[in-house]
Each structure stands twice: as C-alpha cells, then as structure tokens.
Design a protein that fits this description.
Order of helices and strands: HEEEHHEHEHEEHHHHHHH
Number of helices: 12
CATH architecture of the largest domain: 3-Layer(aba) Sandwich
Radius of gyration: 24 Å
Structural class: alpha+beta
Largest sheet: 3 strands, antiparallel
Strand content: 5-15%
CATH topology of the largest domain: Rossmann fold
Amino acid sequence: LREERLRPFEDHSQRIWEELRQQSNVDLRSVRLTGSEKATVRKLVMDVSVDGTEAAALGVMSQGELHSLALSLFLPRAAAPDSPFGFVVIDDPVQSMDPAKVHGLAKVLHDLGETRQVVVFTHDTRLQRAFTNQELPVTVLEVERAGRSVVTVNRVTDPVGQALADARALIRTRNLPPVAMTHMLPSLCRAVLERAFSEAAWLRLHRAGTAEHEAEKTVAGAVTLMDIAALGLFGDPAKRASDVYCELRRRCGSKAVDVVRQCQEGAHPAGTSMPDPQRFVDDIKAVALTVRKPEEGP
C-alpha cells in the first residue's frame, strides 16, 4: 500500500528530473521509503545510476544536481491533488545550477503554475531570462529594504524596457553637458538594441532546438552590435553589416539604419549629432519592439 501511494510521486519526480537534469549523466532510477509501518522515522532512498552504473545519489551528484533532485522530490508533493494549498513558495532554487538546468527549471515552474500560484525568491536574474527566452509568461517583482526596514515592492519591466527608461530619464535630466546627448544617450540606446537583438537571438536558437549550453556559447560569442544584430535577425553572427542594414530597412524602414548608425557613432570621440533626443529614443523603441521577436519561418 505504501509503495502504491508513493508511485504517483515517483513518476512525477522522474518527469521533473528529466527536465532539470539537462546535460547530467545521472539517471534517477527509483524513489522509495524504507522502514517498518510502525517506525516513527522512515528514510527516503533514491537509487541513481551514472552512465548506467548504480551509485548512491549523495556520493556522485554535484551541488546543482542535488538541488535539482531536491526540487524533483518536493514539487510533486506540493502539487498533489489532495494538497490543501493553492500555492508554492520556493527560496532561491537556482543556486549552483548551470544555465541548462535553469532553463529546465523555468519550464518546470511554468507547468506547475498551470495549477498553482508559484512564488520564487532569488537574486539570480538568469531565471527571469530563462522564462523570457522560452516565451513563458512570468511576473517579476523587485523587493527592496531601505532604512528603518521600510520595504518597497516594484514590478520589474523587461530588460529592453529598463534600458529605454534609463534613456528617457537621461533626457529629462536638466543642465547636463552636451556630451550627455552626443555620447551617453547613444550608448544607452545601443544597450536597448543589444538587448532586443539578444532576446531575438535566444528565441531563434531555442526555436531551432539548440541545446542550452550551445545557445549560451553562441550568444556570448557575438560581441559587437553588428554581430548581435546578425544573430538576432538571421541566426548567423557572420552575416555582413550590409545584410543587417538591408534586413532592418525591410522590417523597420530606412530610418532604422540611421538610428543604429547614430548609436555606433556615439562610441567615437566626436560622438553623434542629436538634434531631437526624444524623437531619437522613440525611433529606437520602435526598432527594438520590432526586432526583439524573430519572424516565424515559412
């Protein structure tokens, strides 16, 4: 009877572990309770194998793998149909996880969120990115404690929106030297475009089924704005600047090329001309919102 009651949790744990394990060579074979029916303390035994060879979980698994295993055991019980709670609260589940496992964790939490409210506390921004890159809905709140333990909670916008807000805040600031508009503003807007193109690149790579570690390596290898733009627009960072400009004209209009070039000029000693900063930021926003989502393939 005990094994029958445990079997649904074991099956669910196996499914979660398959999402979280990613590149791990550790297989979770079975989960069982040991001890007599009258025992006040029972042990949970996890049988695992490494490359097909049986081993003890605690002896062969890394810290990140152990955290993933702990979640695989905890979440099925928290999501059980007879659970009286309609929510789950998890504190910093991504600690010690590599990017691939964080990617899998986002999918697991998304699935759990179909039937439960899921609240996660973490300082690690990779989890938010994992949701965004897989086009999974998520609400992010920033909690800050100030003097006298005054706590504020603010909704966090997406990285593109945050960079745009920084650019608009600079425009609103009075009595700044000219270099703020000719150099600093283009730099902030360049960050807007880089984040938009990077988001498109991640989405394109995930849609293509690229493994998480390979996607991370590919995105990290795109250094310049043109590299990142080529990766986001084509999935190929080796595309020429002329190809990037041609695609920008097609999707965003000819003005898009002008504002991208202004962002690049802002990094040079002479800076760039900035007759209308507000219009410039508006144009940057229009380009970013268009390119951040790659077009669907035929």
